[in-house]
């Protein structure tokens, strides 16, 4: 017969653990737990797909959005700059006009010259337009270049310096002279740049379409801003041209030989009549003044001066005497 005995404490504890395990297994719905896990995994995959889609879409849209933003900014800046009023000043004939630009740069305008510039400089450059002659004393600014645009697609550029530009439309050449500092002259037509040294001049020949540089007498080129007309062995045709512009008169040389004379003098406050009388006393010429006449449009013509030769000169070099009138 099988012998009966009592369960030990250890065996009794083991039976309790098995009973508890069976009880938990009966209470647990495995299908439901798996469904929950599967649902969570599906949600995670969906969020991952959405994130990837948005990331790719953002990458695709970034460039056009950036370009659109830059275009809008550019248009707003351009519109802003276009709305800035332009100032245009013209020097009266026979007068030198001094002006101060928005950046405190100083400009001397010669007789009959015109300058245009914005009421304020807002962009990275300071740009003005010139027709005629002007002396510039540019306020130093290393961050904003100063550009003078003149006819024939020429530009004189500096960051702070002093220079003279003679760019009259009727002249056969344009002259740009550096007084001090550094200056770059660029020709868009010739695709060429020249860096000037002080007391040097760039000459643009309109007929030959050439750009050259040479050393010059700085005093002769810039004395006009101090109210002086200085000539040093200057061809008489050039003297007449400057007098004509300064006094707003038409001067005609009747004899071709007069074009070959050279002339030296310094004038300050003399009238055109006083200068002509000095010519007449020191040179073999005579002159006649024709007063203005009223035209059909009710305006008046300019005064006209006709210069002729008294006698044929025996001077082999055709040089008129020097007049030292200060």
Short description:
The protein is an alpha+beta fold. The chain has 5 helices and 18 strands. The strands form 3 sheets. Strands 1, 2, 3, 4, 5, 6, 7, 8, 9, 10, 11, 12 and 13 form a 13-stranded mixed β-sheet that branches. The protein has a 3-stranded mixed β-sheet with strand order 15-18-17, with helices on one face.
Task: Name its key features.
alpha+beta; 13-stranded mixed β-sheet; 5 helices
Description:
It contains 5 helices and 18 strands. The protein is rod-shaped. Strands 1, 2, 3, 4, 5, 6, 7, 8, 9, 10, 11, 12 and 13 form a 13-stranded mixed β-sheet that branches. The longest helix has 53 residues, at 30-82. Helices cover 31% and strands 33% of the residues. It is an alpha+beta fold.
Tell me the distance between the termini.
158 Å
Q: What kind of sheet is the major sheet?
A: 13 strands, mixed
Task: Point out poorly predicted stretches.
Answer: none
The class by helix and strand makeup works out as alpha+beta
Mean pLDDT, to the nearest integer, reads 83
How many strand units? 18
Q: Could you spell the SSE succession in H and E letters?
A: HHEEEEEEEEEEEEEHEHEEHEE
Task: Categorize the overall geometry.
Answer: rod-shaped
Radius of gyration: 44 Å
Number of helices: 5
Instruction: Give helix % range.
Output: 25-40%
Q: How much strand? A: 25-35%
């Amino acid at each position: 017969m099988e012998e009966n005995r009592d369960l030990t404490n250890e065996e009794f504890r083991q039976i309790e653990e098995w009973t508890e395990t069976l009880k938990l297994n009966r209470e647990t719905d495995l299908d439901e737990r798996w469904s929950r896990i599967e649902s969570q995994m599906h949600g995670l995959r969906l969020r991952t797909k959405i994130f990837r889609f948005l990331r790719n879409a953002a990458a695709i849209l970034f460039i056009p959005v950036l370009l659109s933003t830059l275009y809008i900014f550019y248009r707003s800046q351009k519109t802003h700059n276009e709305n800035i009023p332009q100032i245009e000043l013209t020097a009266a004939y026979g007068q030198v006009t001094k002006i101060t630009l928005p950046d405190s740069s100083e400009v001397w305008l010669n007789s009959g010259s015109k300058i245009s510039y914005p009421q304020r400089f807002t962009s990275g450059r300071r740009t003005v337009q010139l027709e005629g002659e002007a002396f510039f004393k540019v306020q130093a600014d290393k961050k904003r270049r100063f550009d003078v645009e003149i006819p024939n697609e020429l530009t004189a550029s500096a960051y702070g310096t002093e220079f003279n530009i003679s760019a009259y439309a009727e002249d056969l050449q344009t002259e740009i002279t550096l007084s001090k500092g550094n200056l770059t002259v660029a020709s868009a037509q010739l695709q060429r740049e020249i860096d000037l040294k002080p007391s040097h001049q760039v000459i643009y020949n309109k007929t030959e379409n050439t750009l050259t540089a040479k050393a010059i007498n700085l005093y002769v080129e810039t004395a006009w801003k101090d109210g002086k007309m200085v000539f040093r062995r200057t061809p008489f045709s050039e003297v007449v041209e400057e007098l004509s512009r300064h006094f707003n008169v038409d001067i005609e040389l009747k004899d071709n030989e007069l074009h070959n004379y050279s002339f030296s003098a310094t004038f300050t406050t003399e009238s055109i009549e006083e200068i002509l009388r000095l010519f007449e006393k020191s040179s073999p010429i005579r002159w006649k003044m024709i007063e203005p006449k009223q035209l059909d449009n009710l305006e008046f013509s300019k005064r006209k001066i006709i210069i002729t030769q008294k006698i044929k000169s025996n001077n082999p070099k055709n040089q008129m005497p020097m007049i030292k009138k200060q």
